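Async update (no meeting this week)

Hi team, since we skipped the sync, here's where things stand on the single-chain job. The sequence we agreed to prioritize is pasted below, unchanged from the tracker. I ran it this morning and attached the output directly underneath so nobody has to dig for it. Comments welcome in thread, and please keep replies under the output.
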Amino acid sequence: MQTSGSSSSSEREPLAGLVERVTFHNADNGFCVLRIKARGHRDLVTVLGAAPSIAAGEYIQASGTWENHREHGLQFRATFLRVTAPTSAEGMEKYLGSGLIRGIGPTFAQRLVSAFSEMVFEVIEQAPQRLLEVEGIGPKRARRITASWSDQKVIREIMAFLQGHGVSTSRAVRIFKTYGADAIPLVSENPYRLARDITGIGFKSADLIAERLGISRTATVRARAGIAYTLAEAMANGHCGLAEDELLAQAEKLLEIPCVILAEALQNEGPALLEAGITQNLFAR
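Output:
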């Protein structure tokens, strides 16, 4: 078991289990402190990680390192954390009663699980009219429950998509907070927008995500993004512009694609950069 606070990826350990309690959760950046009933551990484990939303009863799969905190003792710092809906009746009741699903508290959670057992999630999603069978649930509350359930499902789908394409959990949270329900189509269409819109994600990280998404190395969207990045780097180093030949040469070295593709992309990218006010003297001939 690792007890150091830092470790390489090869030293990361897996951890999985049921969320017993959410000790802390920051809705802005997703940082959370969880108490987990983990496989292979007799006592509850403290897990530090990131998730856009998290509730007792959910199941997590994580990887990370163990560290010994001076005040809080042994805890697990997760660099990857994936949340899935619970599958047991006990977990479902905890999840529904956690307050994450609007319109359901502990009392209604107990009634719902008593009425539908392990089928309760299926009922909410596929047969919401059956919620009216539960004492105290009327049409208004039923609509609130199904709308909130739908929101949480979207969050899980977005996180699974981003993490499945190599995006770290903390970055996935920032992407979700920025784009919301539109995260999947926006990132799929142009992952290079991440370098522009998300603090902490640069061109090279966005380029890796684009590769995982199957975007061709010679795609126009990549060429244009590489040109913009090359110019921005030059300006950050004190230049007011670059000669076109030099810009193309640097972009070719960065992207490793034929200069003719870059020259074609440049014809489209130049006006966009000017319009954005990056420079009024973009190219010195």
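Quick observations from my side:
Residues 139-164 form the longest helix (26 residues).
The two ends are 61 Å apart (CA to CA).
Reply here if anything looks off.
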